[in-house]
Amino acid sequence: MEETHYLIDSSLVINDSWQQQEKLITIEHIVSLTINGKIWLYFGCTPTDLEALAIGFLFNNFIIDSMNEVACIYVCENKTNVDVWLHHSAEKPEQMEFVNIDNVLSTEYSFPVMDRERSPVECQEKNIAFLYKDFIKTRNLSLDSIKDVFYAVLYSGNKRIGQACDIEKKQTLDKLSGQCLLQSINIKGSILITNALINGEMMQKAARMGVSKMISLNSASTFALEYAKTIGIRIIGYVHQDHYSILI
Prior knowledge:
Helices cover 27% and strands 31% of the residues. It has six helices and twelve strands. The two termini are 37 Å apart. Residues 97-124 have low confidence and may be disordered.
């Protein structure tokens, strides 16, 4: 398993006394992304799934649509650079981090149109409890006692098809996209569950991925909710073992 944390010595202070204590700290690497021999940007990221991060980033920013466009990808040994060569030329967009909504809505994906008249009782999601339990189990196994990173899991029905973590929300979703592209997994109509508050940028990436439902142990921003209305993605928040809230 790739290293995401390391131990440091710290001092635990309680009232007027203190004691030495080991604490786990999240590793952050600065990783450059090179496209066709040119450096495009630098990620500040958790140093895992770097191939997937690069591929997912290119997909979510409409640089590629499939792995058929990728000639080769190489992560250097010290994990400070991901070098991607495409079968075609590519210009670095002026605005890559936040995808234009017109681009998202013009993709080939079709999103389910939700029935706005259904009551909360009629909108009950039968598999939420299962997904919540599986998400918590998967996160705990992957991160052990670490809860300070963003974590996300993709499901097709009740089947787990991808999982990723990072110190950045957007890069967690890029890693998920990249994993599925690298493994030729169809993610259209999938369900995404995360411990992060869902914001507008996450919604745009989810739309690009073809996600049909976003589930959060946290909440969602106002922009995310308005965006979800536009493209027909269900958002469920405040998920716990025995209750949840249908936000849109």
